[in-house]
User: Fold this.
Amino acid sequence: MLKKSITKRMFIGITSVVVGFAVIILLANTLLLSPLYYRSIEKSMVASIEQLAEIDYESEKEVWIEEIFNISSGSAYDVIVRNEGITLFSSSMEIGLRAYPEPGFEPDFEPKPKDNLGPLNSDIEWEKEGSVSLGYSIDTRNNNEFMVCMTELENGYRIFLTQPVAPVNAGIAQSNKLLILCTAAVLLLSIIFAFRFSKGFTKPIKAIQSQVKKISNQDFSAELEVNTGDELENLSNDVNVLSEKLESALEELQERNKQLEKDIQAQRSFISNASHELRTPLSLIKGYADELKSGFISDGEQQKIYHGIISEESTKIKRLLNEMLDLSRLESGRMEINKEKFKVNDVINSFFEKYTGFVKENKLNIERRLSEDSVCFHDAMRFEQILANYISNASKYSDSRKHIIVSTKEIEDNIRVSVFNYGSQIDEDSIIHIWDGFYKADNARTRKDDSYGLGLSIVKAIQQVAGYKYGVINHEDGVEFWFDAKSI
Assistant:
């Protein structure tokens, strides 16, 4: 069970980052805005007072007053000019006189005593900045705090700039309120965005997780659809490919399991049949050997017969064991097929020269219908072994004519060698089984007490290892066994 979902973790992460930035901005605004704002005002006042210091205050008063207004236009501070402790000019008083003059009233620029200007008390603690002094003062008349900037000229004139602190603090407080409201709105929108983004981002991940869970439960019915255009879409495509491959592999594994069960059953049947096949000749050998050992058989001719039977059955056992060993090696892959180039007709003709005795002994009528000489790619020894098994099988089940036809023909890129014998057909239901070891002939053809032995099983194993086809075809008047070799 999940302790935390990806959606929750992503939402908490994004929200934490946004809240962290908001807190940092609020703290920075609270701690830094006020001193920065004050410092900006101080710089502005210093720059203005330096310009005011360049005015010639010994010229006509109306002239330098206009120059003061030109310099201080748009500023919030009050300009005060004093000489020998007497206030010669105050911009705030002058503006008041200009804004609300009485009819016929002329501005009075007479010097005013210093007591009329509350901000300029004697308790100011000055800080020097070049030729300019900065400080703070409290107006005792209304208890208002002022920022004060002062410079003294060579002719004894003093210029003062006074800026009320209350409007500055009010502006800072208003800025803080506005910032808090904006931050709260941004924070709310960020939380909504974080929630929707985290859900949208994790939706394809949850879909992939759900699909993987279905795959783990062997449910391959659904196909994952993620259209994000990024790595998640690539991952979903990989999951779909993995699902298809797993489904295919599972189906193949199930088929192999079924085939394995069949092979195990066939192996058990093979061992059982092999035991049965070995038991009969061994019983005969033991029986005749016991008779000879007992001394009851004194006739020389009869002893020769018994020796002949024992020798024949021993040969059968040896042949059967050799075939079983060959089959086991072929099926286990321990026996390799040594492919080589050779002429098909030469190998077939050479085979019948070597097996002339077998042909005469079984009174076989061999007809060869060989196509023009072709070169094939196969194991020559195994090629002859297949041909020998087919000829042996044909001789057993041929009718009284003992007519066997060996033919070759090219089919696509292969040379097909066929062995046909006249006689009864193989039951269609039994054709698939005749390639199994020890499959009984009476299940496939009507003849009893014979078996196909391991010959056809060896043919099957050789062709499968070589990668070539083999098979059997029922004809109206007989049966055709065939196998392919690669044409060169």
